[in-house]
Amino acid sequence: MAAEVILLGFWPSMFGMRTMIALEEKGVKYEYREEDVINNKSPLLLEMNPIHKTIPVLIHNGKPVLESLIQIQYIDEVWSDNNSFLPSDPYHRAQALFWADFIDKKLYVCGRKTWATKGEELEAANKEFIEILKTLQCELGEKPYFGGDKFGFVDIVLIGFYSWFPAYQKFGNFSIEPECLKLIAWGKRCMQRESVAKALPDSEKVVGYVLQLKKLYGIE
Fold first, then answer.
1. Domain hosting residue 28, numbered range
2. What is the CATH number of the domain that holds 45?
3. Region class of 67: left (phi > 0), else alpha (psi between -120 and 50), else beta
4. Is 87 helix (H, G, I), strand (E, B) or coil?
């Protein structure tokens, strides 16, 4: 492998977006390789992640680092000379890790239900999704970023979902902005960052991808 740092990703994945943003924020030179995780996983992906066989995979000096939250922390520690993502204070660090865990356990699962379910289940998912966002908005408060005045760990973890908001709204038939104005403003603020703009796909492209998924899984 010629490149010291390689990122195996899949463009619609909010998890892969995180790792790309973290690398970009640190100014790390890396090679990005797009994976076809649905139809044709590469031998390198299967070799580097034999257990889960999925992306993102961060390869540093030939060694794999798996799972996006771990990758962000790894990048923060290895390239530690500038722009730390996690707070140095142990309590604030613990709080950031809690909210990252909350996002992964709650938002991803509920977000999927907005396009993969219907009827009463969909209605319940829409309500839960908005409540999750309102909880996150409450944590954001009046701060420009979850990291305070600085774009940090929780911002990196959450922002990928912002590119999926139009898809969630379209297929779930609900609206986020009326109840989450501050969170939407936060998303727009993050999009002004070069790292975020580079990593996040066009939202309409995500809508098209979800349409493909619905056909693939036979969801009408």
1. 5-78
2. 3.40.30.10
3. left
4. coil
Tell whether 65 and 105 lie within a shared domain.
no
Q: DSSP letter at 160?
A: H
Question: Percent of the chain having pLDDT more than 90?
Answer: 95
d(CA 131, CA 119): 19
Q: How far apart are CA 108 and CA 185, in angstroms?
A: 21
pLDDT at res. 83:
86
Amino acid at 151: F
Cα–Cα distance, 204 to 196 (Å, whole number):
17
Report residue 144 as tokens.
């420009």
155-211: pLDDT as tens digits:
999 999 999 999 999 999 999 999 999 999 999 999 999 999 999 999 999 999 999
Residue where a domain terminates, one of 24, 51, 78: 78
Length of the chain: 220
Task: Fill in the amino acid letter for 17.
Answer: M
Distance CA 173, CA 123 (A): 9
